[in-house]
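We treat protein structure as text, and this decision shapes the records that our systems exchange. We quote a single record here, exactly as it is kept in our systems:
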Amino acid sequence: MASDSKLELEDFSASDLPLASERTSSVWPLYALLFVAGLALIVLQLRRPRPPNPWIGRAMPPIEAAGWLNTERPITNEDLRGKLVLVDYWDTGCPACVVNMPNLVKLKDKYKERGLVVIGLTAEESAPGGALTRYVGSVPGLDWPIGYGAFMAFQVAGIEWLPTYVLYDGTGRAIWGGHDLDEFEDALIKRLARG
């Protein structure tokens, strides 16, 4: 038996093994196929229709809050009837909310002459000189009404993530909503173009 295995090893030579270059060159077509398949998946995803915006058509919740900043009296839904209103659901403890605030100020300044009204709602409480009051006072241009302690509005609107921005038309129905301002301006321009 030992002689048989010795014969087998002697009959086998290194020239029978595939060269490293032969092994590598046979793999490249497989890599190319995987690359093409990956590109095809990306193209299919880009062509796939986007799901409809889940906020569209929702009614504006009752604009009720425990208190208000930047206004002499509480804002009501009646005050907003017939106006194009962006409601910013936010919190000072939300990093994305704080980072986006200067961009929201710029958008408000850009479109206020065209009828855009901005209202901020937060579920956090406020005390005179508290964190919310200090933050609002520290952001140049943050001059729109901010309702604090707006738990009911958050609950009725179904707010689960912050920030949430919802654009309501003059009838109080949402025409756009999202968690960042990337598509807001496009939706606003379309609405303003319709008159």
